[in-house]
Structures are given as C-alpha cells and as structure tokens.
Amino acid sequence: MRTTVDIPDSIYRRLKSEAALRGCSVKELVLRGVEAELDGPKDKRERKAVRLPLIHSKRPGQLHLTNRMINEILFP
C-alpha cells in the first residue's frame, strides 16, 4: 500500500543519513521503525521474574508500614 507522510526537513535529513550509514533505503529504515513500534517495546515481550521482599510480622495479617519504612525495605 502506498501512503504519504509529512516529515520535517531536519528529521528527514537525519533519516536519510542514518539509512545511508546502515546501507539501506529510507523506505527500509522507516518500515523497520514502524514494525518495531507495532511489535511494542522489548520489555513487554521479555517478562522477568520479580522478587518481592519478605516482611516478617509479629502479628500476621496486621502489618502497618509507613512510606518511609517501605522505601527502606525496597531501597536499602
């Protein structure tokens, strides 16, 4: 499909220069960028396990923490 996109001159000059450095056409570089944007950030695809701190309580089920205490636990 053919479409028209208005790209500011300064950005187009950078785009054209980058395409030349990579040895590809402006069209190829734009398509790579569009595909990368549609695929989403790598963070969404590569999920990593998160380890949360274990907080012991003298009275299970009743834990009163202030924001300061939480920050001290998370960022020692």
Query: What would the average pLDDT be, to the nearest integer?
Result: 86
Instruction: Give the % helix.
Output: 40-55%
What is the makeup of the main sheet?
none
Query: What shape does the CA trace take?
Result: rod-shaped
Structural class: mainly alpha
Order of helices and strands: HHHH
Query: What is the count of helical runs?
Result: 4
| Total count of strands | 0
Measured by DSSP, the beta-strand proportion falls in under 5%
Count of discrete domains: 1
Rg value: 24 Å
Distance linking N and C termini: 55 Å
Low-confidence stretches: none
Plain-language structure description:
This protein has 76 residues and is mainly α. 53% of the residues lie in helices and 0% in strands. The chain contains 4 helices and no strands. α1 packs across α2. The longest helix has 14 residues, at 9-22. The chain is rod-shaped and about 65 Å long. The model has no long low-confidence stretch (mean pLDDT 86).
